[in-house]
Amino acid sequence: MKTRIFNLWYSFRSSYWFVPAVMAGLAIVLAIGTTTLDEALPPDVAIRLGWLYSGGPEGARTLLSTVAGSMITTAGVVFSITIVVLSLTSSQFGPRLLGNFMRDTGTQVVLGTFVATFIYCLLILRVVRGTDQESFVPHLSVTFTYLLALMSTIVLIYFVHHVASSIQADSIITAVYRDLEATIDRLFPEQQEHGLKELGPKEVAEALPARFEEEGWPVAADGSGYLQAIDLEGLSSFAREHDLILRVHYHAGEFVAEGASLVTAWPREHWNESLVKKVNDTFIRGRQRTNEQDMEYAVKQLVEVALRALSPGINDPFTAMTCIDWLGVAVGRSAQRKFPSPLRYDEKGSLRLAVVPVTFEEIVNAAFGQIRHAASFHLPVFLRLLEAIAAVAPHIRTDEHRAVLNHHAVLVARTGREAVQVKDDREKIDACYERTRHALGKS
Length: 443
Description:
The protein is flat and about 90 Å long. It has 443 residues and is an alpha+beta fold. Helix 4 runs parallel beside helix 7 and helix 6 runs antiparallel to helix 7. The protein has helices at 2-14, 18-40, 45-49, 57-93, 98-102, 105-125, 139-166, 169-187, 201-207, 212-215, 232-241, 276-280, 295-310, 317-335, 360-374, 379-392, 399-419, 423-442, and strands spanning 129-130, 135-136, 217-220, 225-230, 245-248, 255-256, 261-266, 283-286, 343-345, 351-354. It starts with a helix and ends with a helix. The mean pLDDT is 87. Strands 3-7-5-10-9 form a five-stranded mixed β-sheet. Strands 6-4-8 form a three-stranded antiparallel β-sheet. Among the domains are: 2-167; 298-338 and 359-442.
């Protein structure tokens, strides 16, 4: 249940309408509150206080109408500029970065401020009365309109600065890394102990009963889509309740086709078809990948920026090198963290759940593999890859992690030697590789 609630919150936070809708609701509450106070205040309160709006009904209507009209016009301009920025980002840095801009709280607050001010003015405008029989001017409410208009002006200045800075390559890369950093801290909160070996697919298979796959019951997926999250706590509780061992065949980020085997349940005699929906409900699928539980997707967002920068159409190796720097920081941060065990036991020590393990090797492959292939003849990119691997060395805490980085250093050096033709360039790669190998040996 907690996973599904978090997924729902992630969807709200990733949408462009959520914050403006909340701010619009607050504007309605504020309008009701100020008009209620205005009705309770004495008629001459504006004259006695001095700082409240003291004009008549016509002046109040003109002010409110002017502010409302300007706010909705400005909101349209902000929306148009945002669409242009999204189009630019999609074409230059990749469509998968659109989600990062959609989640940008600053832009959402800017749009929400203008919409909220517009709604507030409309609601106050309806209570202004100026007829021969009755006259009512909500002095306090109109005064709040001045404050909202001033706030909107400040927010507009901020928006211009924010857009200008957010479309810079370094700002985009840093923002993507911040999301990646938050994903690492959320998925791997515990520090890795020195020398503690990770459990891989081989150890998972050995922990299962003999002939598990042959005698187990395959549970088919009832829909297709990218696996955004798995409610492992709910799945473990389900297995304990029905005295089952469940092996999950997919991890977050993979595409699941309808009818594919999501889970194998064992023993077969404890299973019945009425339980299929309950198991499927613990798998949250969607149209696209998210970094909610998908560490690899968060890494590949940075990789995509680097690959586009290295493409012949853009040919910007400096942006690619910036991505490599941040990827090295992310890999080093991952190396310090304890990866969750793929085996889940109940309070009696009985195995209940076996999931696809997340390994350090997969993260390193996702971070450096494709960039190495795309580096082509860019010597500085090969050198920066080796330097990034060397920078991870002080954070290594297991021999397995060191072996993974050594393997990638060898691949980068070999690919670089084959790509460059000049002898001096090859010598630079060899020298950088030796420094990397020495750093990994000392870690």
